[in-house]
Amino acid sequence: MIKRMLKSYDYSLIFAVFLLCGFGLVMVYSSSVITAVTKYKQHSDYFFNKQTKALIVGSLIFLFTAFFPYKAFANRKFQKLLLLGSLCALIALFGVGYVAGNAQSWYKISNYSIQPGEFVKLTVILYLSSVYAKKQSYINNLGTGIAPPALLTVVICVLVAVQPDFGTAFIIGLIALCIILCSGFSGKTLLKLLTLAGVVFVLVSPLILFNADDILTKERLSRFESYQNPFEDQTGKGFQVSNSLIAIGTGGIFGLGLGESIQKYNYLPEAHTDFIMAVIAEELGVFGVLFVILLLSFIVIKGFYIARKCEDPFGSLLAIGISSMIALQTFINLGGISGLIPLTGVTLPFISYGGSSLVVLLASMGILVNISMFNEYFNRSKRKQPINTTKFKENQYQKSINY
Fold first, then answer.
1. Does 186 map to a domain?
2. TM segments (predicted)?
3. For 4-41, what is each residue's pLDDT tens digit?
4. Cis amide prior to 313 (ω within 30 degrees)
5. For residue 279, what are the CA distances in angstroms to 226, 260, 377?
6. What percent of the chain has pLDDT over 90?
7. What is the pLDDT of residue 8?
């Protein structure tokens, strides 16, 4: 049984994930050397060492979730504890949270920072997948089927947004939307849901307008004003995006060489987090960028394929949620650094520096690998089931009579 399970794992997916993580470690070191020394007064390998520790912790959690049966996550008691813990962690931030980047989104423990918003992404995926899988018999009932979990998700998004961390809140909302749209309800129910969303928006709009100055600060407005033409105010509003575009353009096809980036010399703020792909483009050129995009695309496509092949509604929705999370983060990050969309501060999956993000991503990939393994394991078991010859002959005889 164990041998058959080990044979059923998707090793191509595992290889792609850890290849990206290894590449990310190299690029975190390359992009953070100058920042670590000049800005944080630390050793050149400061961020590299912290990311390595996060990768080790994440790998151990990956092994656990890859071998632990994913269906156990649908347990009601576990779901309640997970939701309660996530809500408490988000609320407690307003009292003891650590402020960084104008957002009170972290817990500071010694030299390490933990961002609960990253863990809430996985909480929402597990919760919505479990709830909607259990509601399949009455999924078209808006009052008892779709709405309650969706409203709880809205509450979670609001708690994240008021930190303020609009990027994470936006991603959580989009992940939830992907799971809800794939939960199996009819087009008529979708129309009702859109109407309800419109009513909620109308009710919330006055509150948003009343607090417009607090929500749309000068810094946030500058991101919307500058992303289309960052070179118009290159030293002001467009500083980040313009330097990102310079880095991308400088790299060309083959790049300047690993470690040879110029923009990481404090031209790109926090080059090892949001703008790490710009450094990859500058140092490794088009080939480096394609390497990352193709591997991320492979993981996302593989995830949706696993969801398509999974016969269990919980496993299928879980795979959709995890794949959507990686796809959305990738698109938002790449769109921001290339000037296609406004900057949101979202990191690039598996590549950017960020311990909380890396641990959550590896835990999620372990679950995805586990879903894939169970699919393949049961499919192999079905193929190897012996044919009942007596029953087969009876069926053939019955068919000949009917004919």
1. yes
2. 12-34, 54-74, 81-100, 112-133, 145-162, 168-186, 193-212, 284-305, 317-341, 353-374
3. 778 888 899 999 999 999 999 999 999 999 999 988 88
4. no
5. 21, 9, 42
6. 46
7. 82
The DSSP annotation for 213-267 comes to HHHS-HHHHHHHHHSS-GGGGTTTTTHHHHHHHHHHHHHTTT-S-TT--STTTTT
Look at residue 403 in the predicted model and tell me its pLDDT.
39
Determine the distance from the C-alpha atom of residue 165 to the mean position of all C-alpha atoms in its chain, rounded to a whole number: 15
283 assigned to some structural domain: yes
CA dist 328 → 295, 324, 353 (Å)? 15, 6, 18
Write out the H or E segment, with its range, that includes residue 81.
helix 76-96
Rounded to 5 degrees, φ, ψ at 107 are -105, 130
Domain boundaries, position 140: 2-384
- Average of per-residue pLDDT values in the chain: 85
Instruction: Assess if residue 335 is contained within a domain.
Output: yes
Cα–Cα separations (whole angstroms), residue 301 to 11, 354, 376: 15, 24, 17
* 243: pLDDT strictly greater than 70: yes
Give the distance from CA 325 to its chain's centroid: 3
- The residue among 46 and 377 whose pLDDT is bigger is 46
Query: Which amino acid does the sequence have at 77?
Result: K
Confidence (pLDDT) at 392? 40
Q: How many residues are given for the chain?
A: 403
pTM of the model: 0.88
pLDDT (mean) for 219-225? 58
Integer Cα distance of 204 and 227 in angstroms: 27
Encoded amino acid at 278, one letter = A
Query: Which residues, including other chains, have CB under 8 Å from residue 13's CB and lie 6 or more apart?
Result: 299, 302, 365, 368, 369, 372
Say how far apart CA 331 and CA 284 lie, in whole Å.
Answer: 20
- How many structural domains are present in the chain? 1
Task: Give the pLDDT of residue 146.
Answer: 80
Q: Is residue 200 part of a domain?
A: yes
Between CA 314 and CA 301 the distance in angstroms is 19
Taking residues 109-136, what's their average pLDDT?
89
Answer for the pair 276, 329: CB distance below 8 angstroms, yes or no: no
**Are residues 91 and 152 in contact, defined by beta-carbon separation less than 8 angstroms?**
no
